[in-house]
Amino acid sequence: MKVMNMVQSINNALDIKLKEDDSVIIYGEDVGVEGGVFRITEGLQKKYGADRVFDSPLAESGIIGTAVGMAVAGLRPVVEMQFSGFVYPGFNQIISHAARMRNRSRGKFTTPMVIRMPYGGGINALEHHSESMETLFGHIPGLKVVIPSTPHDAKGLLIAAIESNDTVIYMEPKRMYRAIKQEVPEEKFNIPLGKAQVISPGTDITVVAYGAMIREVQKAMVLAKEAGISVELIDLRSIYPIDRDTLATSVKKTGRILTVTEGPRSFGVASEITQIINEDAFLYLEAPPKRVTGFDTIVPLPKGEHHYMQSAEKIFYELEKTVKY
Fold first, then answer.
1. Which of 126, 72, 116, 61 has the alpha carbon at shortest distance from 94?
2. Which structural domain, as residue segments, surrounds residue 263?
3. Which of 97, 129, 139, 152 is catalytic?
């Protein structure tokens, strides 16, 4: 196995699929010659040519709309939104066409396409560069929404996303692009979409997170261990479909749950997880489900961003309070 960061593992996944499947194409703003803002697609145009890896106009609606047409025609486009905050002009294409093409055509047409986008804060970026709005996509019938937290999962989930016959929103926590490295198999493998992973088994409380929040929870777990609290950490991996069984099984064991997300508090993924536990594991609860989230505000500009972001201390505070309830 080779040691990779997330940038390298995503690039490797794209390389594998381009090589084995001629229907896979990649395009977006600056992804061809430059390899994208974060150099995710670096070297792929040189290897596979400008017919399969190419730059697009600065028009998100056009990028997604053409991908819908290509997917219906038999290709498997993988398009990149330069930042998740730039995707909004393309929402009409996602909601009105990509997400409902199979239903509209009664199964005659599908849209096997992947929309990649770096998301989240923590890198002192400008407005529209730091949103964590995965809930918007998770609420749209017909979409799958995937968020990896490690280089290993980034590769396996992306390969599965490209091979899916549904439109997949693939959100990449950009603060994790080069934050960690780990061993990743060089050969092809995939991770099933919709299946969470129990990263660390525990007995006192279940903590659910995904993307960059996994690392923050792991920092909080160091404080929890010092306090004698055993944490079961679950990486959700897929926002939709969501793994109800893994969540309920864990809470039936621990009796408590804390969900950690980066995005705004109201109507978020944490709220959905709380309701799932109320429906599937209510009689096992020893404390009310709790959540640590962002605020119902626009993400602040760099000088104030740290007030918005989650930290090990914030997470541990709620974790300990829930255990002692």
1. 61
2. 197-323
3. 129
